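Re: weekly structure request thread

Next one in the queue (161 aa):
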Amino acid sequence: MEIRPFIETDWPRVWPIVRDIVRAADTFVYDPAMTEAEARALWIEAPPGLTVVALEDERMLGSAKMGPNRPGPGSHVATASFMVPAEARGRGIGKALCRYALAWARERGFAGMQFNAVAESNAGAVKLYRQLGFQIVGTVPGAFAHPTLGRVGLHIMYCPL
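Done, posted below.
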């Protein structure tokens, strides 16, 4: 598997991944009705951030975006988001993308990486992030309206670098 920076010609293969995950409304706090243009503007990071894709024999296996969590006085902490299509899950792609983002942040001198909204019902992601050094530093009860579980908590997770 290769992880490399996003290029414009990747979008037609990234968009279906983003679309399907966002429309499922069970992991991301993005509007499930967002348009393709809105999704592209949200997912493709401008410098100093970066969007990457994971490929295997030119097959799109996932994407990640990373950058400063906040501007100004909060810009020393990074953040990242990851999307892997259902048919590619369970193969370590999310872990590879997260490791890539952590390495990217370390290389740029970020003090840590913070995830602002990890649905507590997304047990696989929570377990993976903990394995990679993240801790839950807080949970906002009922902040995520899961389509089948109802309101569940949103974790704030942090990994010092």
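The first strand starts at residue 2 and ends at 5. The radius of gyration is 15 Å.
Next request, please.
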